[in-house]
Amino acid sequence: MKIIVAIKQVPDRDAQVRIDAAGKWIDESDLQYALNEPDAYALEEALQLKEKHDGEVIVLSAGPERVGTTIREALAKGADRAIHILSDDLGSRDALGVARLLAAAARQENPDLILTGLQSEDLGLGQTGVIVAELLGLPHATLILHVEKTDTGIEVKRELEEGWFQTIQLPTPAVLTIQSGGNKLRYATLMGIKRARTKEVRQLLAADLVPVASPVVTLEHIALPSKKKSTQMLTGTPKETAAALVEKLRFEVRVL
Amino acid sequence: MSGILVVQEERGLGRNRFSQEALAAGRVIASLTGLPLETAVVGDKNTPILAETSGAPPSAAYAVEHPLLNIYTSDGYALAFEQLIRKLNPAYILLPHSYQVRDFVPRLAARFNQVLIGDVSAIESGPLFTCQLFQGKLNARYRHQGDGPCFISIQAGAFRPDLPAAGTTTIHPFVPDIAPEAIRTRPSEPFRAAAQTIDLGSAQLIVSVGRGIKEQENISLVQELATALGAELAASRPICDNGWLPMERQVGSSGQTVAPKLYLAVGISGAIQHLVGIKASQCIVAINKDPDAPIFEVADYGIVGDLMEVVPALTEEVKAAKQ
Fold first, then answer.
1. What is the pTM of this model?
2. If contacts are CB pairs under 8 Å, which of residues 143-182 in chain A contact chain B?
3. B92 and B22, same structural domain?
4. Most buried among A48, A100, B197, B274, using CB within 10 Å?
């Protein structure tokens, strides 16, 4: 099975995000980056499929030079090789623009499966994988927790709302967006990190893959969300705040 | 470009609030643009959601009927709505931001060289559409460019279903052309993984733990607080994904929906998927180290601090108060 895993580098979830001076994006100086967590689950599912059925796992990511560190991390966890679409203007592309880049690179590889996380932790658009499927003319399924190979293709377990699931049979090639929690994530081993240094990372230039199209949706500005409720903040030492809260729970909320 | 098309999702009589909220958002765009409002739903003219819609604007309702749409598939729905949209040529297409919409609408929109503006919580003149970034830490305002149809999905609970002025809805059947081989996926009937043995839905007091707890060993601190309060222990998704607590203790859109007197969120940042599961709580208390965590937007009481210090202190105070 030849599997492409599309991954994204996103600001670390513990990073303090600050709005930049133009109010158009966050201040990226001194920002720590990490692998988008749902994509880590997509990579894990791909590695487990390879361990069961043999084949190849190819990591695909678009972004500037700094994305290379996240690609190496995926290689250290066990991906065989990588494709890095070099692009410094990802932010000016909408989901369709990014999906066009990924689809163009994926098309050259003729994979059996393309996996990606259900959404990114930064923009949270949750559509890139589905658009890639449409652009490549492939069937897709979203919110997938588990993939089984069958004689005719694959059978996947899909999460629905409120604790419900379903299985879906798809022919391959197909595109799946992976929900978190289906597997336990592995860590890179020291040997894996060492090996990753010698694995192939093919760099493609975004401009060579697809002509730039003007986006159909643009981000006008970003802001802190406005409060829906007036929250009473309790301040002081841990003991003082704990005592103040117990007071509220006894006399105002009346649950003690 | 003829108008605004709100695509509703049939969930059975009385369970269609989510679609009614999308209709309410459609009325906001109608008042901003002066365009007429129409609606569509998969089903025949007797489908319950049309009974809830009829007798009021939207003036026209399209019942999208085809045997191959009886079971949802992304291929079938994308094809049916592609044909309806080409026929009606609407300027705006609004839908509830459901799991189903997230599954087929990105594909549908791409056929029109469009992207979905997803999970919209507010619409202002422009129109500008407000969506969340960074799991709710920031809001973004997006603008649609160009002439193509604009696809928008509406966040649950963001628009209040309203009672529109009286009017008449004419129901038009629409039969799309779908060949059986166009549907490439075969879905099963939905099933539940295992019997839920923990009913968080009826719990009066809930102490819930999130990613901020950092280590599995630290969960015992939160368990001690829950025990002292006589509360059920619950968790946000990442805790259950890691296997630190069983899935049946998960609260949120993919877990249980709760409505306790007290929901005490420990180290939970408050992503929208979690907040939708707790909004019926009478009192929400949040303890988090990040003062900008979105959980504080919905909390009645907040404490910013180190969980490792605040939680044991709180347990001691609760024990003392109960003596």
1. 0.91
2. 143, 158-171, 179-181
3. yes
4. B274
